[in-house]
Amino acid sequence: MSCFVLPSQYGHLLQTKTIWNAEETPESHSLMEQILHLEKLEVDIFRGFTLPEAPTFNQVFGGQLIAQALAAASKTVDCLKLVHSLHAIFLIAGDNNMPIIYQVHRERDGTSFATRKVEAKQKGLVMFTLIVSFQKEELGFEHQAAIMPDVPPPEQLLNMEEIRERRLTDPRFPMQYRNSAAKKKFVPWP
């Protein structure tokens, strides 16, 4: 599987005030912006294309589906809410030569969070689903600032032979467990 990663400094490309500006034409944008530019067909329904000059993979590239579905979802959310998390499900391969219809389902609109489900369809079949959560920027806990636990270095840990010996002899393990461990064939690990 391949993944398209959009660094945070390019997050503005998904906001309505840039690539969907009515005064600008899609042809004046970069290839990336052209791929992300979706045609609005109706409320919460958009059409995307695979551009002829885009790299081809004999089917729609997964990163393109994720990017276009995320762009469609972002068009239905307050611009102050940023992507918080997403989950993508690839169901069937898409055809490069056909337009892709993105239908956005507004699952939840709250003060701080919004949730969208986006279905990408071709020939009436759902080929891809994206579930995405948006969150308003707020001060809060830093969940990723965890401190590394104090653990011994790898060279001080027991090797596989020592672990096996402990399983066989440690009285804290039940006898049934020790007997089961003794019956297993020991294969040394590097």
Outline of this structure?
Keywords: Hydrolase. The protein is an alpha+beta fold and 190 residues long. Helix content is 20%, strand content 26%.
CATH architectural name of the largest domain: Roll
CATH topological fold name of the largest domain? Thiol Ester Dehydrase, Chain A
What would you call the structural class?
A: alpha+beta
Order of helices and strands: HEEHEEEEHH
The CATH superfamily title of the largest domain: Hotdog Thioesterase
Describe the sheet with the most strands. Answer: 6 strands, antiparallel
Helix content: 10-25%
Mean pLDDT: 82
The fraction of residues assigned to DSSP E strands is 25-35%
Instruction: Quickly count the helices.
Output: 4
Quantity of strands, as a count: 6
| Arrangement of strands in the largest sheet | 1-2-4-5-6-3
What's the level 1 CATH class of the largest domain? Alpha Beta
- Spans with pLDDT under 50 lasting ≥5 residues? 16-20
Distance between the termini: 30 Å
Shape: elongated
Total number of domains: 2
Radius of gyration: 25 Å
Summarize the topology.
Elements: H1 31-36, E1 39-42, E2 45-48, H2 62-74, E3 81-90, E4 100-109, E5 113-122, E6 125-136, H3 160-169, H4 175-183
Antiparallel strand pairs: 1-2, 2-4, 3-6, 4-5, 5-6
